[in-house]
Amino acid sequence: MRVMGVDPGLTRCGLSLVESGRGRQITALDVDVVRTPSEAPLAKRLLTISDAVEHWLDTHHPDVLAIERVFSQVNLMTVMGTAQAGGVIALAAAKRDIDVHFHTPTEVKAAVTGNGAADKAQVTAMVTRILALQAKPTPADAADALALAICHCWRAPMLARMAAAEAKAAEQRRAYLAKLKAGR
Length: 184
Fold this sequence. Notes:
single chain, alpha/beta, Nucleotidyltransferase, domain 5, five-stranded mixed β-sheet, globular, RNaseH_sf
């Protein structure tokens, strides 16, 4: 499975591509950070991110995108920009019929380090170790994008089993309710 991990942001947007193998084996294929100047108009910044992501999607053909879910930060403007960048990225994937999954920073940190409260240095060190990289990915946005992709590779089988179980439970509930209704 090819997973494109995205750490969305207006100033720096981390992009990565990994491929999962047997078990927990993952190979890094590419990583980059898209930068936009903070003084540029919002629409131009989003366009720059969109263009870069669309190039990645058309070049790498990922099976799925894993994007960081923004749910709380102190700076409202940062949250808004990050959410807007994430929306542009999800839209580009949807146009290509590529599944998009969102993971919280806590989920990503827990998957990669075993500690949902890990700091950036711990995440970077574990990403470097898991992917057997010769050098630490920099800046942190690159490491975070790789961590998102790793997280999805490891969580995807569980998510698929949960979705199948929920679908089966819903079908059994429908059958049970139909049986009850027929018995009246």
